[in-house]
Design goal:
Responsible for synthesis of pseudouridine from uracil. By secondary structure, this protein is α+β, with helices and mostly antiparallel strands. It contains seven helices and 15 strands. The chain has helices at about 55-60, 65-75, 150-155, 190-200, 275-280, 295-300, 330-345, and strands at about 40-45, 80, 85, 95-100, 120-125, 125-130, 180-185, 205-215, 220-225, 225-230, 235-240, 245-255, 260-265, 310-315, 325.
Length: about 350
Amino acid sequence: MSELASEPGSEPGNEPGSEPGSEPGSEPGIEPGIEAGSEHRALRVPEGLAGERVDVGMAQMFGISRSKAAELLRAGHVQLDGTGAAKSDRLLPGTLLEVVLPPVTDPLAITAELVDGITILHEDESIVVIDKPVGVAVHPSMGWTGPTVVGHLRAAGVQIATSGAAERQGIVQRLDVGTSGVMVICKGERAYSVLKNAFRHREIDKIYHALVQGHPDPLEGTVDAPIGRAPKSDWKFAVREDGKHSVTHYETLEAHRFASLLEIRLETGRTHQIRVHMAALKHPCVGDLTYGADPTLARRLKLERQWLHAVRLGFTHPASGEYVEYTSPYPSDLADALETIRDAH
């Protein structure tokens, strides 16, 4: 994901001390099996880096981050005078430092990869409905290197619509990486247009269950509060006056000593909407440490994510015109946590 940039004038053959045969594609002393398109670089360690650790020297000599240097060392792509190097090794002046730099890839490119845990609930010529597990993003994004729904569908041979941005073609709704449950993806262009319009006009029934700390008062209500990016954060959101219109309806299904199980209907679909609105009520989703949940309770329930699940999705089918509804059961981590809450005295 990190872009690798060389220092000006440090191309192979231009820098002082370049070794013969160090052009891209020539890899003396480096083990075979490296990624196609990788670049081999070789430089003599200058006096100024004497005694520095290898990762520190790599960062300065090749213009990469120390974390990228450590990654290359772990992968066995670094050698000192023909011998595999470790991060803690110290540099000696005149030593030949060889590095294999992997090709720079597009962070938004879709990687076809089957993902354990994704279940296809329904598929026809227009749509595919899936049950998304936790830890899977819907589509590629900057900073995300894990599995994606679109990558799974591509690997499974499911053709989806080409409408929308390249990395999220066919996507008309999204679930957070840390949120599991049912969602729909469009296979045909007409389906994409119809469902995109239906989501825009709030004609989709999106039902979630959330286990929140404490007991909301009133037990049933609506949160109508605009949401925007939190100050000084690129990934958190907050209720703020200049945010986007956001409406969440909730109803208490079960009230227990430490937490309440809510059924939530989304009228709008902002990023982190339920999590932000519940936190604004001072009843964050259990396990949602990002938005103020109690870490002690999360540990007691063995939760490593927010207790939030998309249980039902209902809409008018874009081809048949009939109302359809799909459901997803609680995954085991959420089910176990709920049972522990129910048994608490």
